[in-house]
Amino acid sequence: MACNTPIENDKAADACRFLTFNVNGLRTLFHYQPFSNMNQSIENVFDYFNADIITFQELKVERSALTKWGKLDNFYSFISIPQARKGYSGVGCWIRILPKDHPLHNSLKVIKAEEGITGRLGVKIGKDLVTYSSDSSIGIGGYESLPYNDEQEALKIDSEGRSVMVELASNTVVICVYCPANSTLSEEGELFRVKFLKILFKRIRNLDAMGKKVVLMGDLNVCRDLIDHAESLERASMPITDNMGGLEIEEKFQNSCRDFIINPDVPHRRLFNQMLSDSMFSEMALEGVLIDTTRLKQSRKRLKMYTVWNTFKNSRPANYGSRIDFVLTSTRMGVQVQSANILPQVMGSDHCPVYADIIYDPSDVGEKDFDVKTPKFEARYKYDLMHGNILDMFGKVKSQSVLGKVVKKPVSHSPKPVDKLIERNEARNLTITKPSNGEKEKISQLKNFFGEPPLCKHGKETILRTSKTLTNPGKRFWICKYPKGSFGDKLSSCGFFQWV
Fold it and tell me: Where would I find the GRF-type domain in this sequence (predicted)?
């Protein structure tokens, strides 16, 4: 899978790189190249991406593991994990601590930070628990008229580890989210999803009205346009040729593209488009306050710009997926966006990273040099990570982490820049385990037991699978060996199916 537009080799000195990545389990990321060579150092990962502000979703880590992920020498760490369900969800935001002589040293200074989107959570100050919405010295603001019923509902919404907010000295509020998906397709799940989005979007509008710049980044679990959803394109019987672009599809199939957004069965798409100043609905765009940086730089012409794929159906090799991961900014920040793209070559998750390079004017920060107190939500304070592990007393003495001060440290494996990954063939990123002789013999015996595999419509031998449905559990069947993909793609499944 090739990336149409390579990531910029050089990032400008006054550009801040925002990067979002749903890692689907932080530990599993280090099982894949090139991360497997980084000694499980998350700082090495950030350096590899050359990113300054990073958000990861679906961390799936417990509190006991946060010392490794939340106590970094060169980054502020802000992490929200679920209060009840262990090893589920989780969002982290890391802000690089730049040297004093760096042009953006002051611009990226953290002023305030919050957990959640309602402001009803809080931090301990002395012996008291102070909520963000009740104390302007710790709260970012924008809490007016948020559409939740009561405090109990607000606390439930913020208890799943789905959002982190950070305010920078450059008058920018960075909002990192992992929005609900309603994977169970239940009415309760859809109500929770819509409620979350309504509160999130109202909070953003409030912040925008206060004059703050907003960067919303993460896995929104909402697909904004029909051209971003392979399955819906196929369901609408839209044949896509190599020379066809998104604009042509939207002009030729205007009604289908509009129905995709305003379909009453998927209200989250309408809610999302109402926030976008680049929505295809002009009436929605007029009220929108956010712009899609990827679409801004890649244009509506580019198709198949997917960020997540179905791993069960192995749809990634055929690039048959959807786009639900975004870096969105306040509309007035659009002129600051230097570059933006997706990185589908980066393996390690069912999602891929998305980034945007945003230019900052250092003069936007009034004082040239000033000190601010680190917010109590910073992981070292929130999770009491300031105390060292007693086992470290019996090991080698390591350099102590000093918050707010850049500490140089040796790296055993120098991470390669992400830019060079684009130039590689995707196959080199995959680790293929060859079956042993015993496994080959077992496969051969199974093949002989079930007979010779029939040929599919491609004229190729089919592969054997086992049914996991309630109606035919354990029953064997033959299917085309190619993954599900777009209609007409010769490297996609031909749809062949035959029971054994």
Answer: 456-500
Residue 221 known to bind ligand: yes
Of residues 371 and 224, more confidence is placed in 224
Residue holding tokens 């589920």?
88
Question: Does 351 appear as a known binding residue?
Answer: yes
219 is catalytic: yes
How many domains, in total, are found in the chain? 2
State the average pLDDT for the chain. Answer: 85
Question: What is the reported pLDDT for 254?
Answer: 92
Looking at 105, 229, 268, 351, which residue is catalytic?
351
Q: Is 268 a catalytic residue?
A: no
Average pLDDT of the residues in 43-68: 94
Question: Out of 52, 158, 219, 357, which one is annotated catalytic?
Answer: 219
114 labelled ligand-binding: no
275 domain-assigned:
no
Catalytic residue (one of 132, 178, 360, 383): 178
Residue 416 lies in a domain: no
Predicted TM-score (pTM) of this structure = 0.81
219 labelled binding-site residue? yes
Let me know how many helices (H) and strands (E) the chain has, helices first.
14, 19
320 is catalytic: no
Range of the domain at 83: 15-221+324-391
Q: Does residue 440 lie within any of the structural domains?
A: no
Burial track 325-362 (b if 16+ CB lie within 10 A, e otherwise): bbbbbbbebbebbbbbbbbbbbbbbbbbbbbbbbebee
Tell me whether residue 300 is in a domain: no
Q: Examine the fold and report which residue of 339, 367, 391 is the final residue of a domain before the chain moves on.
A: 391
Residue range 356-404, pLDDT digits in tens? 999 998 888 866 667 789 999 999 999 999 765 544 444 444 444 556 6
